[in-house]
Amino acid sequence: MGSSSSRRCRISSGVCVAVALILAFLACCVACASGAVPALYVLGDSQADVGNNNYLPESLLRANFPHNGVDYPGGKATGRFSNGYNFVDLVASSLGLDSPPPYLSIRNSSNSTIYLKGINFASGGAGVSDLTNKGQCISFDEQIERDYSKVHAALVKRLGKRNASTHLGESLFVVAIGGNDIIMQVLFSPVTELLSTQKQFISTLADTLKRQLQSLYDLGMRRLFIVGAAPLGCCPLLREQSPTKACQAEANSMAATYNDAAAELLRGMAKRHRDMSYAFFDTSTALLQAIHDPKARGYTEVKAACCGLGVNNAMFLCAPDSKYCSNRTTHMFWDLVHPTEMTSKKLMNVAFNGSAPLVSPINVKELTQC
Ligand SMILES: *[C@@H]1O[C@H](CO)[C@@H](O)[C@H](O)[C@H]1NC(C)=O
Ligand SMILES: *[C@@H]1O[C@H](CO)[C@@H](O)[C@H](O)[C@H]1NC(C)=O
Ligand SMILES: *[C@@H]1O[C@H](CO)[C@@H](O)[C@H](O)[C@H]1NC(C)=O
Ligand SMILES: *[C@@H]1O[C@H](CO)[C@@H](O)[C@H](O)[C@H]1NC(C)=O
Ligand SMILES: *[C@@H]1O[C@H](CO)[C@@H](O)[C@H](O)[C@H]1NC(C)=O
């Protein structure tokens, strides 16, 4: 190899300079691999909640009863809004980590060692706006400013500022937020108003999200996996509003607009902060592909929920007296808004190994190796 490359060098030293530059570039970028991800810090809504809302006695937005968890180990209803694992569990296991515990189950721990293995702050019902499901959940702002910032302080106290930065910088932050803001807006404003106010509504959401992500950056977040809004108009809850059971176009358009705004603010953020990297998953585009061609993606049912009451099981969250489908692997939706474990699996395969436009600018595998 030495002789053939030196022969090439004699032929053209220009090529060698180019090769050297490429090698230097690769060396630089491989060098940014700072080891395995030590922990996950998770914030967001019910897609990511692993049981925080179990600790909110006033909340109706809970899932710690059957038939939730029917496919979870032991058939246990943990508080996950799923028949089995949710997407955070799948991200954790793909990285060889345990899915972190709900913050409210460990917040009284006097031993901060437990925080080093990651924590899940997510709360069903939460939105970018504090007003979304107010009183029923831990808002995204509370998750950041009240809960995570306490954990951050405990880690700094324990590890020192520098080592805490290293630990958090290598950790993966997982964020899923925004869907509930859109659902509430669609359910509670007249359609005529929706069309005229959509742009303003999304731009306000994006401004708030930008401030929130900046707070997380200020508190040590450097690797971010963020999932965009689903095509909410196609979830059983909103299909049910249409006489023809068609996808609700305004909700889908708002989800797509929100995702575009989120992608744009992330591009800006990464430009301002060269030490931050992220993977943005466009849930809306990925799920619409499956909704348009269910058979090709292994689904037999993409309209009705598996578990619930009423037409298409779309009338109520999954509860003990609901009926549920016998084969959860071929349904897209578990309940009126949440995906089945199988859907989360299919989506996370793409988030890990896929490419733009579904996951960008890099996928989760690349994000966690660099
Ligand atoms: C933690 O402490 C709070 C307030 O002291 C209490 O209400 C809560 O039940 C405790 N949580 C756990 C999981 O022990
Ligand atoms: C904290 O917990 C860790 C692991 O569980 C244990 O090794 C350590 O001794 C504990 N520290 C204190 C001060 O209790
Ligand atoms: C920080 O990490 C270094 C290297 O692992 C270690 O030697 C040092 O003791 C740590 N500092 C604190 C305050 O834990
Ligand atoms: C569910 O459906 C899939 C696809 O048709 C099939 O491969 C699988 O065996 C079924 N599972 C059960 C438990 O019936
Ligand atoms: C990504 O692809 C690799 C290799 O093909 C596979 O082993 C792994 O399970 C995939 N990851 C996910 C989360 O699908």
From TrEMBL:
Protein keywords: Hydrolase, Lipid degradation, Lipid metabolism, Signal
Pfam families: Lipase_GDSL
MF term (GO), any: hydrolase activity, acting on ester bonds
Signal peptide interval: 1-35
Entry's Gene Ontology BP terms: lipid catabolic process
Family as reported in the entry's similarity comment: Belongs to the 'GDSL' lipolytic enzyme family.
PANTHER family associated with the record: GDSL LIPASE/ACYLHYDROLASE FAMILY PROTEIN (AFU_ORTHOLOGUE AFUA_4G14700) (PTHR45648), OS03G0581400 PROTEIN (PTHR45648:SF48)
Name the UniProt record assigns to this protein: GDSL esterase/lipase
Species per Swiss-Prot/TrEMBL record: Oryza brachyantha (malo sina)
